[in-house]
Amino acid sequence: MINIYFISGPCGCGKTTLTNAFAEHLVKSEKRTRIYVIHGDDFHHGFVGMYEEDAFCEEEQDSNPLAWAQVLRFNWECILDVANDFRQC
Hints:
Elements: H1 15-30, H2 40-44, H3 58-63, H4 65-88
């Protein structure tokens, strides 16, 4: 059986720390051999054309909320596609 967990929340709330600890727990306690951790940051850093810099600062998000919504939508579409690909393996 394949389980997929989604952890979402605001910046700096500990999502990555929780995810890494949970993945380690699954490996140790359930003897899992294949665990995939997909981070949204992996996708929005590859979103080209909206910003000149690599980082998304709060100032840019506030000045162009539609653009930021597009980045978030893009992230979730990528995450869901990758999760679906792993589910089908």
